[in-house]
UniProtKB/TrEMBL annotation, chains A, B:
Pfam families given in the database record: NUDIX, WHD_NrtR
Signal peptide region: none
The protein's name in its UniProt record: NUDIX hydrolase
Stretches the record annotates as Disordered: 26-45
Residue span(s) of domain NrtR DNA-binding winged helix: 172-234
The species this protein was found in: Nocardia aurantia
Domain Nudix hydrolase: 48-146
Xref: InterPro entries: NUDIX_hydrolase-like_dom_sf (IPR015797), NUDIX_hydrolase_dom (IPR000086), WH-like_DNA-bd_sf (IPR036388), WH_DNA-bd_sf (IPR036390), WHD_NrtR (IPR054105)
Coiled-coil features, chain-numbered ranges: none
Length: 252, 252
């Protein structure tokens, strides 16, 4: 059978937990029977998982938003290619974690020449604030703009993988600042998982598995006063499975 | 820059825990000061993880052993392609699990045209005995034959991934028979992990996480007599992470 040209590309979903302005959904700006408690105030913000997207200035699909990525070169492997493409959109020094996800190989995923996409998950910690080029912006994952091709599906896939890995690895090290209070860590988990988690449970589980370690220091009290909060750090800064069956490990 | 032809292929490491004849390593057949306890007897066997390989009848690398796989067609995605290629070497009905591993994309991984390999892990249960074509054979992973290209590295990668997943998922369901004693399950874990595990610990951990469920039935006693052993089954027959942080799940 004939083989037309096939292009290999990388596509990376770079996530960061960020503050985003609250947006009142269209059509709900003035629901007359909603009480003051349900109204959003201009200038108010919330914390959410953000994804880095750039807007296409040319066809195909001009104006839609794309994941960073591009074509594999003859002289590089896919990991090298993904990092090179990413560096055009964000300071890769700020990337704490980058891992291969799945291949998107549907013959019809993009029009024209076949493109096989090797997808990646990239993570940037809460406190980093990388410079972005003018075509690039953070978007909250709950309100993605009009996405190019199947890039919205890639974001969903990456987000699902991140949530799964939060449950059995220490991957949150790459979303957290170097030192943090449990309250901050809870905010990161809630944003990345998309649902509420309990601070006490989180601390208990992560401490028992030695995923996090107390630093001995405390954070200065906030405006409301109260007891100073203990500061923690992640025990490791490389990905590891945090709950291998201890009983199954070889005896050393 | 110019782009020469690039081929995309699938390569699958199909594993099964099997009985293999004991082999006395060359040069150790007759060590005069080894006692009778260390001598292997002809006809003796051991249980080990096996990998399905076929021997190349043509160049390049005629005579070396390869993983099942081959070139992606224009009209199929990679998962479909991997299954199609596998079907030439083994009855895919017997495959209990197939998952994408990593991409092997080093520009120089094979001579000639560039080939990007999408690698897969496939698992066949202990009691299956699929028919094989004449060029195909099971090999113990501890004694691989002369392997083609980087296929030996792919086997190592797949084996490492399997061992990791045994520790935090129920993936052993795809290596075990439908019903099994703890003694059989221990043998499967030992073979797949490559080190000894304790039956009592294994049963305790897997039961607590509801990875396995007692069937209520027992196996007939062996030749040595003794108490009949309880039969278990895997609770699920699809891959799942067996130790998500219960505390972090959304309340239902």
């Amino acid at each position: 059978m004939s083989h037309s040209s096939t292009i290999h590309e990388s596509l990376t979903a770079v996530f960061q937990v960020r503050r985003f302005p609250d947006i009142i959904p269209a059509g709900q700006e003035d629901i007359s029977n909603s009480g003051p408690a349900t109204r959003r105030h201009p200038g108010s913000e919330h914390t959410e998982l953000g994804v880095l997207l750039w807007q296409r200035a040319m066809d195909p699909q001009v104006g839609t938003w794309s994941l960073p990525g591009g074509r594999l070169r003859d002289n590089e492997d896919l990991d090298t290619s993904a990092r090179r493409q990413l560096a055009e959109k964000v300071d890769v020094q700020q990337l704490m974690h980058l891992e291969q996800l799945s291949l998107f190989s549907d013959p019809h995923r993009v029009p024209g020449d076949r493109r096989i996409a090797s997808t990646y998950l990239g993570l940037i910690p809460l406190t980093a604030d990388p410079q972005l080029p003018s075509d690039t912006r953070w978007h909250p994952v709950s309100a993605l703009p009009h996405m190019s091709f199947d890039h919205g599906t890639v974001v969903e896939y990456a987000r699902t993988r991140l949530a799964a890995k939060l449950s059995y690895t220490n991957i949150a090290f790459a979303l957290a600042p170097p030192r943090f209070t449990m309250s901050t860590l809870r905010e990161i988990y809630c944003a990345a998982l998309g649902y509420e988690v309990d601070t006490t449970n989180l601390q208990r589980v992560l401490s028992r598995r030695t995923v996090i370690t107390p630093t001995g220091a405390t954070a200065p009290p906030g405006k409301a006063g109260g007891r100073p909060a203990a500061l923690y750090r992640f025990t490791d800064s490389e990905l590891r499975v945090t709950d291998e069956f201890a009983a199954l490990r070889p005896r050393t």
